[in-house]
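Researcher: Go.
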Amino acid sequence: MKSILQNGDFDDELRETFLTKTVDLLDELSSEIQHVIDSGDLELDFIVNNNLIRYNRFNQAFQAIELYRYRVIEKYGVAERYFNKKIERIYNEIENFSQLPPIITTISNSEEYYWAHPLYEIIAVPSGEEKNLLNLPDLYHEVGHLIFKQYSDSLVGSLIDEISKYFAAQKQLAVDQNKSGKLIDLLKEIEANWKNGWIEEFTCDIIGTYLVGPAYGWTNLKLTTNSTYFNAVYSPSVSHPSDDSRNKAILKTLNLLGYGHDDIQVLEKSWKDFQSHISDDYPEYYDYYFPEELIEKLVQNVVQGCKDIALRSHLEQIEKFDRPISQILNEAWFIARNKPQEFSEWEKKTIQEIDESLNGE
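Model: Structure:
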C-alpha cells in the first residue's frame, strides 16, 4: 500500500498533505509492528494471548487507514474535485478562522448516507450526490462533527453537569414515588446516552441549522420520512436521539436565531402534518428521554458557542457574500416545495452554475 501511495498516479487536485499524512500513518504502524517482531515476544508461548490482542489492534489500525485514507485517495476523481472545491467555498463562507476543510469522498453509499470521521478529517457522501442539492444541508451537520471534536467545551458549556443533576433528581423522584426499577434503570441508560452520543448529534443539528437555516430543517424532515419504514420517528438509538426530538432542537434554534414567524411556522406545520399521517408509537416513558429544558439549554449554549468561535450563521453569510451555498440550498427547498414541476431543471442549471463558479468560469 505504501509503495502504491508513493508511486501511484493520483488526481492532481488531491491534497498533498492528505497523501503524505497517510504514508506517515503507515510508517508509524509499520514501526510498531517491527518493534514487536524485534522484541522476541512472538516466540514466547505464555504471552500468546497478549500477542493476539496486539495483532487485532494492529489489524484494526491498518483497516482504518485502508478505509478512511487509502480508499479515499484511490477513489478521488471528478466528483471529489467538485465536492472539495465546494467544501473549500463553504468553509470560506462559514468561518472567520483558518481551519483546514476536511476531504470529501464518495466512498459512502445510499444506505450509509452522509457520515464523518473527525479523526481522519474526512466526510463521506454517497456516489452521485454531486447531482443533488436537497440532501446537501446534511453536509453542514457532518462539518459539525469536526467542529465538535475541536470545540466541544465551547459549544456544550455546562450542559454535562446539568444533565447529571437533572437525571439525579429524576432518579431520586422515582425512588421517592416508588416507581418501578425498570424506570430507574432506564433513566441511567438515558443519561448515559445523552452524554455519550446524543449530545453530539444534537449539537451537530444545531450547528447545521445555524449554518444553513431553514433548509436544514427541511432536509431533516425529508430524511425523517425514511424512519417511518422502521417505526423509528420517536425511537432513539444508543448513538442518535429520536427524529422527533431532533426536530424540536432545530425549531428552537431557528427561533433563537430570529428567523421570521413564517419560516418557522410552515416547517412546524409540515412536521405536524407528517406526524398525523404516520403510525409510529411513542416508546414507554418517552417524556423522560428528551426534556425540553435540556434541549433548550443546549440550543442556547451551542448557538452562543458558534458565535464565540467565529462561525458565521446563514443570516451572516447572506450579508457578507453574494449568494452563498447556504442560500442556494434554501432556494432549492423553496422551489422544491412551491414549484416542484420546475425543480428538476432548476437544480441541473444551478449545479452547473456552482460548478462553473468553483472552476472560475
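Model: The beta strands are 103-108, 115-117, 122-126.
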